[in-house]
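sorry for the late reply, my laptop died twice this morning and i had to redo everyting from scratch. anyway the thing you sent over, i finally got around to it. pasting the sequence first so we're on the same page, its 197 residues, then the predicted structure underneath. double check i copied it right bc i was rushing
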Amino acid sequence: MTSEYSFNLYNSLAPSGTVIALKKIMPTAVQTPVILCIGSDLSVGDSLGPITGTRLKDKLRGLNCYIYGTLSKPITAHEVKYMNEFIHSSHPGAPIIAIDAAVGAAGDIGLIKIARHGVKPGSGANKKLARVGDVSVIGIIAEKSVFNFSILSATRLNIVYRMADIISEGVATYIMDQLRTAEQSSIFSDLRDISEG
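ok and here's the structure:
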C-alpha cells in the first residue's frame, strides 16, 4: 500500500486528491485528528503552516476540531517539542496531522506531499529536531540549497497561499467527513440500543 501521495498545486484535482490520500492513510481514525500547523509569519517561505491553520480555523469554525498554529498564534519549529508533549497529554490517542513547508529538488517546487509519517520541522534550515505527527502534509516551496534562509524569504507568496488554500480545503473536507461519519455511527448505535432495550 502506498504511504506517500503527491499533488501539484496547479492540478485542479489537488484538493480532492488530498482528501482521498488522507482517507487512505487514516481510514479508521477513532478520534478526530488534531491539526498542527508549523511555521512562522516572519518569513513568506515559512508561512505555509500558519496560513493553512488560519484558513482551517475559518473553515472548521464551531466544529469539534483542534487546530494549533495560525497567523495570530504561530507554532515555530522551536516550539514543536513542547506542542508535541502538550497535544499528547491534552488529546491522548488522537492522531496528529502535521502541516509544514519544505525545500526540495527544483522539479518538486509546487508539490504537496501527504505521507504516513510525521515531519521533521526545521530540517530545511538544517535544524536537528524530532519528528512530529502521525501524518505529514508538506508543501515544497523552494529548491534545497546551502542558502535556505534567503530562499525562504524570497519565496513567492502566491505559491504559498495557493498551497495553503488547497491543503486547507482538502483537510477541512476530510475532517468534516470524519465528524459526519462519527455522528452517523453514534446515531445508529443509539437506535440499536433503543431497539434492543
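Helices lie at 14-25, 48-59, 80-90, 148-153, 157-196.
thats about all i looked at so far, will dig more tmrw
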